[in-house]
């Protein structure tokens, strides 16, 4: 087992309840025992550790904060702590769980019919069925309102045409939630991936999130029954509601990645000697470690407050944006500082900070880029939208 010790300078642990601590510790052990021994291999090979899916399901991590249908029904804060611990292992593993729970199970739970919920949610909670979320298109990333994917009614069916790009879990999914315009309005559709005309092609050559599947979804005259429309989906707002849930998880997840980098950098700095002193005894090195623990502490408090507001039902989308933006930035900066402290060792797979650093570049961009979240917060505080 790896010797991981999460920094917690402000004893945020004391602000959690027993159940939250127990869930956090269970996922922490799972990551130490099951993720850490295989992650270097998968990152190197560019493969997702599919062998972990059954245990991820058994632990109740899929759709964990949803009620019923075999879901664990834990609090949002507990869900966030799960994401924190998973991302301590790897952003790709956290991404898998985020997409399945927040971007596929959540919309089925929130906008789906009873039949759709019965059909998909129990099998998705165990990991027997996998899903993906297709919003982004090759020419429409930050501005999904311009999407070109269309659904057209034809008798008892809808016919879908269009391309979605950068889709996590794409080629390992049984079903895709596809956002498409129907009579000019954005709606969500359940598209089984074995339907004729549906192709999922993996995007090659990624140097970030290598232990995660990222695909292009191509739909050419894909026919689905009308019952595959998510009946309560109603405009782009429905897709953005799913993003709130996933962005919330990322705000916690990024703390975990930063904690992993800090722990590794501190151990290394204490163990390595230069100029007859441990690196940790040099002022400049301490300054970097203090920057990290300082920002991690603020990030932990931000995430916990966000969790408490979500559990109270008061959280606003711009508060989630602020936390996603801050915590991913601080995690990326922490990973870079850790990599620096490790010197040449930091560029090898033997250590984890370089992998976290590469992963966090994707996390900085997906689920709304750093700058899009600045504009969301900017709109809230000024009353002026500066997107266009
Ligand atoms: P806008 O006119 O501002 O809004 C349309 C309607 O939606 C409402 N709204 C929201 N509702 C809930 N949650 C939010 N976060 C919302 N933001 C806006 C809004 O009030 C309005 O409602 P109504 O009733 O008036 O219709 O829309 P816009 O087209 O101007 O876009 C705004 C913008 C730029 C903020 C939005 O498009 C955006 O967030 N863009 C970023 C795109 C993005 O984040 N894509 C992520 C794709 S999925 C992904 O990356 C998965 S990564 C895998 C992983 O997580 O591991
Ligand atoms: P663009 O929108 O082209 O942005 C490029 C740059 O321009 C950014 O710096 C951006 O901040 C800036 N910019 C754009 N608009 C403005 C503006 N108005 N003002 C100032 N600056 C602006 N999408 C899904 O739908 N499902 C998924 O599962 C999914 N998984 C992903 C997995 C990975 C590994 C990655 C990398 C992406 C994934 N995405 C997914 C896509 C992701 O959500 C988009 O990459 C993201 O929304 C940004 O879109 P873009 O890449 O087209 O960049």
Q: Can you characterise this structure?
A:
With 388 residues, the protein is an alpha+beta fold. The protein has 3 domains: 12-126, Acyl-CoA dehydrogenase/oxidase, N-terminal domain (Butyryl-Coa Dehydrogenase, subunit A, domain 1); 131-234, Butyryl-CoA Dehydrogenase, subunit A, domain 2, CATH 2.40.110.10; 237-382, Up-down Bundle (Butyryl-CoA Dehydrogenase, subunit A, domain 3), CATH 1.20.140. Helices cover 51% and strands 15% of the residues. It has helices at 18-45, 53-58, 76-89, 91-111, 114-126, 236-271, 283-312, 317-341, 353-365, 370-382, and strands spanning 131-134, 150-154, 157-168, 175-182, 185-192, 198-202, 214-225, 273-274, 277-278. Strands 1, 2, 3, 4, 5, 6 and 7 form a 7-stranded mixed sheet that branches. A two-stranded antiparallel ribbon has the order 8-9. A hairpin with a 2-residue loop joins strand 2 (150-154) and strand 3. The radius of gyration is 21 Å and the shape is globular. The model has no long low-confidence stretch (mean pLDDT 98). The chain binds 3-thiaglutaryl-CoA and flavin-adenine dinucleotide. Residues 99, 132-136, 141-142, 166-168, 209, 214, 362, 365-366, 369, 371-372, 387 line the site of flavin-adenine dinucleotide.
């Amino acid at each position: 087992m790896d010797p991981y010790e999460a920094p917690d300078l402000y004893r945020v642990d004391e602000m959690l309840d027993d159940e939250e601590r127990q869930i956090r510790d269970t996922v922490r052990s799972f990551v130490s025992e099951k993720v850490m021994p295989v992650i270097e291999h998968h990152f190197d090979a560019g493969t997702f550790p599919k062998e972990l899916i059954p245990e991820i399901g058994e632990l109740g991590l899929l759709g964990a904060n949803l009620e019923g249908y075999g879901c664990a029904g834990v609090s949002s804060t507990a869900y966030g702590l799960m994401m924190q611990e998973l991302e301590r292992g790897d952003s790709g593993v956290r991404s898998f769980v985020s997409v399945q729970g927040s971007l596929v199970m959540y919309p089925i739970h929130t906008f789906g019919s009873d039949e759709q919920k019965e059909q998909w949610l129990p099998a998705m909670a165990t990991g027997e069925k996998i899903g993906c979320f297709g919003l982004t298109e090759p020419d429409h990333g930050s501005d999904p309102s311009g999407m070109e994917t269309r659904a057209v009614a034809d008798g008892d069916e809808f016919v879908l045409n269009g391309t979605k790009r950068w889709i996590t879990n794409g080629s390992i999914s049984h079903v895709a939630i596809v956002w498409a315009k129907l009579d000019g309005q954005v709606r969500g559709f359940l598209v089984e991936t074995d339907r004729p005309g549906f192709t999922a092609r993996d995007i090659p050559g990624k140097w970030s999130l290598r232990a995660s599947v990222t695909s292009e979804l191509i739909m050419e005259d894909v026919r689905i029954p009308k019952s595959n429309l998510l009946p309560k989906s109603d405009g782009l707002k429905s897709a953005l509601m799913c993003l709130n849930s996933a962005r919330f998880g990322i705000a916690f997840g990024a703390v975990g990645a930063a904690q992993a980098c800090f722990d590794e950098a501190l151990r290394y700095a204490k163990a390595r000697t230069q100029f007859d002193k441990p690196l940790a005894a040099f002022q400049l090195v301490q300054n970097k470690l203090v920057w990290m623990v300082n920002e991690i502490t603020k990030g932990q408090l931000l995430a916990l407050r966000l969790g408490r507001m979500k559990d109270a039902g008061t959280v606003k989308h711009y508060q989630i944006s602020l936390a996603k933006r801050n915590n991913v930035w601080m995690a990326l900066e922490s990973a870079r500082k850790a990599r620096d402290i490790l010197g040449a060792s930091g560029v090898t797979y033997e250590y984890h900070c370089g992998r976290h650093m590469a992963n966090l570049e994707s996390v900085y961009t997906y689920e709304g880029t750093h700058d899009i979240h600045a504009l969301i917060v900017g709109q809230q505080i000024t009353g002026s939208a500066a997107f266009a």
